[in-house]
Design brief:
Bound molecules: BIS(adenosine)-5'-pentaphosphate
CATH superfamily: P-loop containing nucleotide triphosphate hydrolases
CATH topology: Rossmann fold
Helix content: 40-55%
Structural class: alpha/beta
Radius of gyration: 17 Å
Low-confidence stretches: none
Distance between the termini: 24 Å
Order of helices and strands: EHEHHHEHEHEEEHHEH
CATH architecture: 3-Layer(aba) Sandwich
Largest sheet: 5 strands, parallel
Strand order of the largest sheet: 2-3-1-4-8
Shape: globular
CATH class: Alpha Beta
Strand content: 15-25%
Number of strands: 8
Length: 219
C-alpha cells in the first residue's frame, strides 16, 4: 500500500497515519518528523531548515525531495508506506511521479485529503502536545496521555511545538492554501484522490479512512 496524506496543518494527518501504519505494518514517513529530528540533533540539514520551519514556511523542495528519495529506496519502504506531509508542492508531486518512473515502481494507491473547518484545526493545534523523545502526538482534551505531561509510550516529556504558536499557525495555514491545496485538483484529475471528512472524533475519522483504503463503506 502506497499512500499520500494531504491536508492542512493540524487536521490530523499524523494521528491517522500513526494508527494506519501500525495496523498495516508499513512505515509512516513524516517529512515534518524527519526535519524536526535533524533540527533537534543540530545536523547541517537541521541548521539549514530551522528558520523556514520556525516561521511556518516550507523547506525548499530540493531538500525535502532528496530526503524522501533516500527514505523510499530503503528496505523498510519496500512493502509500502504512508507519506505524511509529502507531497506539498507541485514540484514535489512531479518529483514523486519521476521516482516511480525511474525505479519502475507501481505508483500511489490513493492520495487521502483530510478536510476540516479552519476553526477546528486551530483548536486542535493549540491543544496539541508531542513527545520530545519519540514524537508521539497527543491532545490535551481529545487524546490526553495517562499521566499529564508524560508520554504513554516512552515516558518522555510532552512539549508544545514552537510552530504551534498562534501567529505561526496562521502563516502555515496560508502556505497550505497557496502551495498545497492545488495538489487536491492535481490528484483528482489523475483519479487518485479520496476525500475524508476529518471534522469528527479520531475514531470516527479512522473508520472513514479504513473505508477509503479498503474500499468498504462507513456505518
Ligand atoms: P509537519 O510536521 O508535516 O506539520 P503539518 O503538515 O503542518 O502537520 P501537523 O503535524 O501540524 O498536523 P497533522 O495534520 O499531522 O495533525 P496531528 O495529527 O498532529 O511540518 C512541519 C514543518 O516542516 C512545515 O511547516 C515545513 O516547514 C516543514 N515541512 C514538512 N514537510 C514538508 C514538505 N513536504 N515540504 C516542505 N516543507 C515541509 O493532529 C493535531 C492535533 O489534533 C493533535 O493534538 C491531535 O491529537 C489532535 N487531533 C487529531 N485528530 C483529531 C480529531 N479527529 N479530533 C480531535 N482532535 C484531533
Amino acid at each position: 500500500m502506497r499512500l499520500v496524506f494531504l491536508g492542512a496543518p493540524g487536521v490530523g494527518k499524523g494521528t491517522q497515519a500513526q494508527r494506519l501504519a501500525a495496523q498495516e505494518k508499513i512505515p509512516q514517513v513524516s517529512t515534518g518528523d524527519i526535519l524536526r529530528e535533524s533540527v533537534k540533533r543540530g545536523t547541517p540539514l537541521g541548521r539549514q531548515v530551522k528558520a523556514s520551519m520556525d516561521s511556518g514556511k516550507l523547506v525548499p523542495d530540493e531538500v525535502v525531495i532528496g530526503l524522501v528519495r533516500e527514505k523510499l529506496s530503503s528496505p523498510e519502504c519496500a512493502q509500502g508506506y504512508i507519506l505524511d506531509g509529502f507531497t506539498r508542492t507541485m514540484a514535489q508531486a512531479e518529483a514523486l511521479d519521476r521516482m516511480f518512473t525511474e525505479t519502475g515502481t507501481t505508483g500511489l494507491d490513493y492520495v487521502v485529503s483530510f478536510e476540516a473547518p479552519e476553526e477546528e484545526i486551530v483548536r486542535r493545534l493549540s491543544g496539541r502536545r508531542s513527545c520530545a523523545t519519540c514524537q508521539t502526538v497527543y491532545h490535551m482534551e481529545h487524546d490526553p496521555p495517562r499521566r499529564e505531561g508524560i508520554c504513554d509510550k516512552c515516558g518522555g516529556a510532552l512539549i508544545q511545538r514552537a510552530d504551534d504558536e498562534a501567529e505561526t499557525v496562521l502563516a502555515r495555514l496560508r502556505v497550505f492554501d497557496q502551495q498545497t491545496k492545488p495538489l487536491v485538483e492535481y490528484y483528482q484529475r489523475r483519479g487518485l484522490l479520496r476525500r475524508v471528512d476529518a471534522s469528527e472524533s479520531i475514531d470516527q475519522v479512522y473508520k472513514r479512512l479504513l473505508a477509503v483504503v479498503h474500499g468498504t463503506s462507513v456505518a
